[in-house]
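Incident review: delayed structure delivery

Summary: a single-chain prediction request sat in the queue longer than the usual turnaround. Root cause was a stuck worker, restarted by the on-call engineer. No data loss occurred. The affected request and its eventual output are reproduced below so the record is complete for anyone auditing the incident later.

Affected input:
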Amino acid sequence: MNQPTPSYSFDVTSADFDRLVVQASFDQPVLVDFWAEWCAPCKVMLPILEQLAEDYQGELLLAKVNCDVEQDIVGRIGIQTLPTVVLFKDGKVVDGFQEAQPESAIRAMLAPHVVMPEAVVEDPLVQAQALFAESRFADAEALLKSILTEDNSNAKALILYGRCLAERGELTEAQAVLDAVKSDEYKAELAGAKAQLTFLRQAADLPDVADLKTRVAQNPQDDEAAYQLAIQQLARQQYEGALDGLLKLFTRNRSYNEGITHKTLLQVFDLLGNDHPLVTTYRRKLFAALY
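Output delivered after worker restart:
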């Protein structure tokens, strides 16, 4: 008789939180997802977290807390925004994050705390993606070089390698690497990498962030300062702030600089990818602004 597949994710209530989360975390880390039915980013995050729990095959558990119902837990942990995800280990909170995050960033957060089962060893490219998300560009490059030594036409590895170089300021070399990508399979990823390279080049010739923030604070209608500030934020991977500023600028002056704001928003969508929660949110906002 076949045994049922174990579930590594489950709902928790005030009555069993101590047993299923706090006490259980002495045996293996427990990731706690604080969500609510009305929270759209929570619904984006949930399948990612559930898949991660399955990937770790019991080395990590996922506990789900409905914040509309379990107010005692919300108050006890001090949850103030959704989604919030916290990691319990040895009976206490050791890490976590607020707002939706891509899978690679979550894996990077988990890496110091959770042992990946030997049967599920990540391939080097996935590891490099996690390192890149953690801004460990030199470490990511080392893995990517080993991948490219075996297959110098690996498009995904080339694109990520180019992005690492760009983030380290090696813009000319990064351009050469991205130009070497011939595959049409990853057009969106390549367009995003080239967009990031463009943002980094543009930012190098712009006033610094502090000056631009001062200009915008003194005159919220300063379109040039608002756009330049967004470019500086994009160069620093501050995507939510940049998208918010670009959308506000587009809403009040969609013809600014021959419509460059709309073009830049689309470039950011390419950069982050269609599955990124920020892209889902800001595509909807942009559509509303357009129509």
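Verification: The chain has three domains: 9-101, 124-185, 204-290.
Action items: add queue-age alerting; document worker restart procedure.
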